[in-house]
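#random but structural
TW: two for the price of one
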Amino acid sequence: MFTDQDMSAVFNALSHESRRHILDILKAEPGLPVGELASRFDVSRIAVMNHIAVLEQAGLVISEKNGRQRRLWLNAAPLQMIQDRWLDAYTEHFARRLTHLKFAAEAAALKEKDKP
């Protein structure tokens, strides 16, 4: 179960620009080694590791140690749970309206095509 405490950890993790940038990088390059990720920032490796720790505690990053190398992956599930909590009902409503609009536009185009 996704608790309010879990959600607070996600929002805290997302509050820092560097952590959001880390997530963007991991989305584009799943399984990136920590050293390679750290080399893309103008801060110490320890600072990047601290950011990774916050992201892991929030469940947004999954790491796997393989020998001496540690690889990282984005875990979007916590973000999806937050979206589901507030947006699912709205998304469903607007998706239904958009579908009706699509059918109405297609019907109007078909009538226009059939005119002499």
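TW: number two ↓
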Amino acid sequence: MKKLLITLLLLLSISTLALFASGSKESKSDNGKETITMATNAEWPPLEFVDDKGKVVGYEVELTEALSTVTNYNWKVVNVAWDGIFAGMANGAYDGLASGVSVTEERKQAMIFSNPILTEAQAIIVNSGTTNPPTNLDELVGKKVGVLMGSIGDLYLQDSGKDINIKQYDNIAFSIEDMLNNNLDAVVVDSIIAGEFVLKNENYKAKLIKSGEADSVGTPIAMCFPKGDTEIVEIVNKALAELEANGTIATLKAKYGIL
């Protein structure tokens, strides 16, 4: 009986280990490739968003999935909340991020980036009837400006040293609604998001305008991975070059209206 019990415990242990292994980065899919899981916050059209069928789509989502065609890995994207997305990567919940992450010197200290997949500026959005709307950073001085908490726009305004009344939001749509209710003078947001999510959104495009840019130099956007994971970054950079050369990137940019 004792031997039988030991045998059963060993079988249970093996089964448990196999169960945990099946969900790990090293697990094999039906085609024998390992799977790389990338997290995204699907609230940033046209980079990543949920379509009317409930599917996570967008330029960066499809670009990530296209890595499967030019690497020896399967690449998949999972939708997670923005406020915990960096901590999740650090804790190993997923392998990397494909979520409109701007490359900053501060972030380089904690993670490693691929080559840029886009470069964008920080757009200033105002209500369409605004008199003398701000067109640059200096003209935001003294105004109440909405930003996405922790975004590059938020960090840029904070680091500018300008006397700007910054109001942070955990969803950019909330800042837009607050501005429409005259609680903000402007919203600063990534130019890609401004163009697609705000100016082309049926709920907003007749009510808002882009009045200018808060920064004069664009900010690169890239996929990112835990610090030290240089091997996977080299694979991604090589794959991105192949996708550029074979026209995949150009096709995706055209599909999602990205210049």
